[in-house]
Design goal:
Layout: E1 2-11, E2 16-24, E3 29-33, H1 40-47, E4 54-60, E5 64-67, H2 80-90, H3 97-107, H4 124-138, E6 142-146, H5 154-171, E7 174-179, H6 182-188, E8 191-196, E9 199-204, H7 206-210, H8 213-218, H9 225-237, H10 247-258
């Protein structure tokens, strides 16, 4: 898989992307972060090949699934089962459909009772899980996900993050995820692209962005909670715990200092 952008620009009536140059790393989780209106969704559509552009894009992808920000708007079948089945048949995937559908629902925390329910009559969080189940059932090499964690409770978010991490490590999947949730991005990302007004203002290691107050201010994002706590301890107690992306690692550091 190869995705390379060189001096790419897009001009639409409601949003503009200006002179973007970057590479997407295979078998990594890349987050696109920025405030609402910064161009995240437009960039994901561009990566998916949906819109015209100026510049050069090398896009060598065997299989991809693009989960849009409000997937429930695209539901049209009578049942969850039919919704997933339609996508599998559209892609002409050869598999045991029933087994694949039930398995994908279980992966997102939904049981067989959802098979015959209307996707339009379940909660927003359940709709997001059904949409994610469709993506998982299609089993692409590349997942392009626009705000996949919205409308999910804390436990569901954690489970989905764990699932993405496992799929990357065990199956070599690649993820491109758009969000303005810095807590999730810090914990899960391998690489980060920061957007502001359609321009890339940061690309690189997540700690270089999420621990830099000036850069965060530039892209109008909040400090992740774990970074805020670490800075508070340093500023008030003079203790430098070091930055972590996992709360359990931070707690171990605190325990060592207390001990």
């Amino acid at each position: 898989m190869e995705i390379k952008f060189k001096n790419v620009s897009v001009g639409l009536s409601d949003c503009v992307l200006n002179d973007l140059s970057f590479d997407i790393c295979e078998k990594k989780i890349t987050f696109v972060v920025g405030e609402s209106g910064s161009g995240k969704s437009l960039l994901l559509s561009l990566i998916n090949g949906d819109i015209p552009y100026d510049g050069e894009i090398i896009r060598n992808i065997k299989s991809v699934y693009f989960l849009k920000q409000n997937p429930e708007e695209f539901f049209f079948c009578n049942t969850v089962y039919e919704e997933i089945l339609f996508e599998l048949k559209k892609r002409k995937l050869k598999c045991d459909y029933d087994k694949k559908i039930i398995s994908s629902l279980r992966m997102v925390g939904l049981d067989k009772s959802f098979l015959n329910r209307s996707p339009l009559e379940i909660s927003k969080g359940e709709q997001k899980k059904v949409a994610m189940a469709i993506a998982l059932a299609c089993n692409p090499r590349l997942f392009i996900l626009d705000e996949p964690f919205t409308n999910l409770d804390y436990i569901s978010k954690k489970n989905l993050m764990k699932l993405f991490r496992m799929m990357k490590l065990r199956y070599g999947k690649t993820f491109i995820i758009a969000t303005n949730d810095t807590d999730i991005a810090l914990e899960l990302a391998d690489e980060v692209i920061g957007l502001k007004n359609g321009k890339i203002v940061f690309q690189g290691n997540k700690f270089d962005l999420f621990t830099n107050r000036q850069l965060l201010k530039e892209v109008n994002l909040f400090e992740p909670e774990i970074v805020r706590f670490t800075n508070l301890v340093k500023d008030t107690k003079g203790i430098n715990l070091g930055y972590r992306d996992d709360i359990n690692d931070l707690m171990k550091d605190i325990y060592r200092f207390v001990k």
